[in-house]
Backbone:
């Protein structure tokens, strides 16, 4: 690529900012910086935030992206993630650093390879000179008539503690600003520049700002100038992402019919127990076995947010026909394995009609219901195999009794869905349950 | 292939089928499983999925990536959708192809996080200031999640616009038996790159509504200009009332409602009683109509909610003396039917917001009350 004389559009005669506005000088510094790195316009994106600074992108012959107030870093991150080859520059105001501060924090933590240039004029220029997160103590603005009493944000300090790779605080007068901008743009990681400048319409006249007062603010607020971070120990985010090992995908099992259909009615079953009793996976095995037998199934799990404690329930419908409605108020079958599950589902158990069947862990409380109640020592049997196998013991007993599905179909579903480590234990549990059910 | 999967899983499969190659999202029940799946599926394909620091960042990443050439997806639920609002305005104004899944849950604020409802129907229609047309599709089944994901990406690419998929907890998180290979999936639409016009310049957007909307890619060989402010076709900011009118007229009319109308109808050609449903409630209606035959009753399931598929609605509304609109909200879509129905017909808005599914019995009861049935 041949070197460009300027990155400003040829038709640009002047910039739109107030006379003496720092944005004008900063943009000519940026133009010089792009020349210094011989930036390819087609691979350069200027993302602007909102505010007077947000007018900047349209004057350059590079890709221009103008989004929402405070969110420029998010678009820049998306662009960088989508195409890591691009040189992505964010131009934002101190206003943007307030409303979008969360994105500075997280872009720095990620060390995503974008360059953020903050045109810091200590107030909101565009909306009329209100105070911003960087307004110094005592600063007079449209919204701090008696002087600002909020501590100014140390933008660089914030970025540093969040892991930013490169940072510098400069003023718009600094001769080295173009070369620092160039260094920031070529830095492989998150780079942020806090560039102090004038808002000649509001902040500067209200506070008699000049070069000297900027130096004074730097000293009194302990906000030093210069390159403040240049880390070599962090990997840029898109590079780190590529270096990560992708998880291998599990192929979804094919559940084509392999077994005879034994079911001649729709069964609505509630399976409930305590956390850790493998309720969800057992419900899935039941559904899969029904499908492997040419039927239909639905499964809905329910558990508290605190997954390791309390109840765990699943509603499973198995049917020889397509299932439309998946709600369940009075199921026609239940398998209840613990007191947590019992308490959770008691209202359903009580509502169950004659002809329904409830399999219950021995020793759970007595209650009134029209359904047939069968109590079995599932837990005692499971303990001999594996504490976690109680649901499969229960399922085995229930199916042996009701004959809704063949044992082979359930074994096949176990084979499909269980990890090799659990396979043997699961088959043993099913067998023990089946024998228990057959004892009637 | 027969699978036992839920709507969230089917939606991921549909999105991948459509060519989705970028995902960003923030965890929220009941949409989290989509984030988790995408975080394994996309890296395994050499593509990027990322958990944002919040929903605002997540949709921001998607907008940036989409304009850089990616087919981007994000998924959330009510509270997150609320945070998307301002960026959805940007996506409409900047004409960003983007698919947004809302796995609806009950209530304003945190509401009932694990309970089903369809309470965001009018919200997505008016989700951002300015109030421009959006496309919103509503699955009623696991199969629909797959199919509508593909349609959503197609519509997003064709019209350069955010497209919503209004799923819900019950559809998203209830596993069902499905065979996605048997479905009539649409062909995949790929985006068109903008090429220089006669003056040698490339338009960033085209205010010509009749054609496919080409895109000038951020970081591509033609310089792109993207902005959320009023602009001309080259992305230059404008203050000209004439240009501003052209832009807004374009945004207001660019989506052709007929082209995006998706629906299913069963019943007589000229129903006397018409049940109009969408989302999970459609299945309750199906169940009610399966058990008893009601002559004269038709069931129209809307898969496209916005823009309102008026032609098909008017067709069946013209003969209907009674219209039943069951919804798991306080009658949000009934408002649309009210303005389209014959003035001398009766609309019964069946509403339920109590964390339970609207049961088939409520449909049966409503039908009993309709005298001619
Ligand atoms: C969400 C939102 N809130 C408020 C505004 C109004 N607004 C426009 S510019 C601006 C402040 C800009 O200040 P700064 O970022 O410092 O840029 P400057 O004008 O000083 O260059 C605000 C609050 C907006 N555009 N969006
Ligand atoms: S208002 Fe302030 S920031 Fe805006 S252009 Fe004028 S001087 Fe610059
Ligand atoms: Mg400012």
Residues:
């Amino acid at each position: 690529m041949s070197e460009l004389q300027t990155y400003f559009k040829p038709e640009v005669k002047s910039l739109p900012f107030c006379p003496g506005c720092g944005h004008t000088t900063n943009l000519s510094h940026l133009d010089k910086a792009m020349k210094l790195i011989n930036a390819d316009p087609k691979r350069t994106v200027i993302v602007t935030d909102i505010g007077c600074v947000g007018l900047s992108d349209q004057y350059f012959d590079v890709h221009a992206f103008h989004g929402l107030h405070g969110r420029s870093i998010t678009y820049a991150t998306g662009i960088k993630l989508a195409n890591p080859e691009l040189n992505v520059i964010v131009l934002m105001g101190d206003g943007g650093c307030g409303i979008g501060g969360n994105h500075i924090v997280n872009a720095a933590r990620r060390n995503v390879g974008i360059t953020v240039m903050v045109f810091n004029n200590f107030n909101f220029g565009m909306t009329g000179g209100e105070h911003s997160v960087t307004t110094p103590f005592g600063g007079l603005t449209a919204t701090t008539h008696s002087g600002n009493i909020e501590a100014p944000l140390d933008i660089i300090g914030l970025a540093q503690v969040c892991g930013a790779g490169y940072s510098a605080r400069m003023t718009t007068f600094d001769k080295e600003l173009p070369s620092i901008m160039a260094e920031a743009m070529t830095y492989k990681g998150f780079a942020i520049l806090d560039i102090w400048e004038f808002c000649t319409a509001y902040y500067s006249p209200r506070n008699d700002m000049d070069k000297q007062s900027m130096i004074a603010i730097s000293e009194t607020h302990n906000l030093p100038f210069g390159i403040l971070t240049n880390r070599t120990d962090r990997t840029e985010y898109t590079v780190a992402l590529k270096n990560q090992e992708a998880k291998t995908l599990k192929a979804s099992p094919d559940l084509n019919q392999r077994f005879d259909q034994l079911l001649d009615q729709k069964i609505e079953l509630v399976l409930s127990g305590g956390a850790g009793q493998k309720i969800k996976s057992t419900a899935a095995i039941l559904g899969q076995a029904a499908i492997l037998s040419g039927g239909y199934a639905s499964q809905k799990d329910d558990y508290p947010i605190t997954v390791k404690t309390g109840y765990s329930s699943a509603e499973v419908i198995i049917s020889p026909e397509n299932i439309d409605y998946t709600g369940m108020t009075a199921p026609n079958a239940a398998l209840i394995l613990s007191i947590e599950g019992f308490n959770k589902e008691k209202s359903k158990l009580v509502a169950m009609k004659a002809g329904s069947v409830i399999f219950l862990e021995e020793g759970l409380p007595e209650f009134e219901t029209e359904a047939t109640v069968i109590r079995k020592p599932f837990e005692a049997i499971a303990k001999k195999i594996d504490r976690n196998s109680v649901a499969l013991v229960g399922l085995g007993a229930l199916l042996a009794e009701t004959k809704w599905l063949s044992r082979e179909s359930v074994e096949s579903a176990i084979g499909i869905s269980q990890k090799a480590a659990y396979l043997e234990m699961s088959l043993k549990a099913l067998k023990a349950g089946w024998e228990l059910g057959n004892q009637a | 292939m027969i699978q036992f999967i839920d709507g969230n899983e089917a939606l991921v499969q549909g999105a991948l089928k459509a060519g989705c190659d970028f995902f960003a999202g923030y965890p929220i029940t009941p949409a989290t499983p989509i984030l988790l799946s995408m975080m394994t599926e996309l890296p395994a394909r050499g593509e990027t999925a990322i958990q944002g620091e919040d929903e605002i960042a997540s949709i921001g990443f998607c907008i940036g990536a989409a304009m850089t050439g990616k087919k981007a997806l994000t998924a959330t639920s009510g509270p997150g959708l609320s945070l998307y609002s301002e960026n959805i305005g940007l996506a409409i104004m900047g004409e960003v192809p983007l698919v947004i899944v809302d796995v609806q849950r009950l209530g304003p604020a945190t509401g009932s996080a694990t309970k089903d409802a369809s309470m965001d129907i009018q919200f997505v229609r008016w989700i951002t200031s300015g109030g421009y047309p959006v496309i919103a599709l509503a699955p009623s089944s696991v199969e629909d999640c797959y199919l509508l994901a593909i349609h959503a990406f197609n519509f997003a690419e064709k019209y350069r616009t955010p497209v919503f998929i209004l799923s819900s907890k019950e559809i998203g998180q209830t596993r069902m038996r499905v065979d996605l290979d048997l479905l009539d999936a649409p062909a995949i639409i790929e985006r068109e790159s903008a090429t220089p016009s006669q003056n040698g310049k490339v338009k960033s957007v085209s205010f010509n509504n009749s054609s496919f909307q080409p895109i000038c890619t951020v970081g591509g060989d033609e310089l792109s200009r993207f902005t959320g402010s009023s602009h001309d076709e080259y992305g230059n900011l404008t203050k000209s009332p004439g240009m501003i009118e052209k832009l807004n007229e374009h945004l207001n009319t660019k989506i052709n409602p007929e082209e995006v109308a998706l629906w299913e109808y069963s019943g007589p050609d000229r129903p006397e009683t018409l049940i109009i449903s969408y989302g999970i409630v459609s299945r309750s209606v199906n169940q009610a109509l399966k058990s008893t035959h009601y002559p004269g009753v038709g069931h129209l399931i809307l898969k496209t909610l916005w823009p309102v598929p008026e032609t098909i609605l008017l067709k069946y509304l013209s003969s209907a003396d009674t219209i039943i609109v069951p919804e798991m909200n306080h009658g949000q879509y009934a408002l649309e039917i009210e303005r389209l129905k014959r003035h001398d017909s009766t609309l019964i808005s069946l509403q339920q917001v109590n964390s339970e599914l609207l049961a088939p019995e409520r449909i049966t009861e409503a039908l009993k009350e309709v005298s001619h049935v």
Summary: The CA atoms of residues 22 and 198 of chain A lie 5 Å apart. The domain at 267-439 of chain A is CATH 3.40.920.10 (Pyruvate-ferredoxin Oxidoreductase; domain 3).
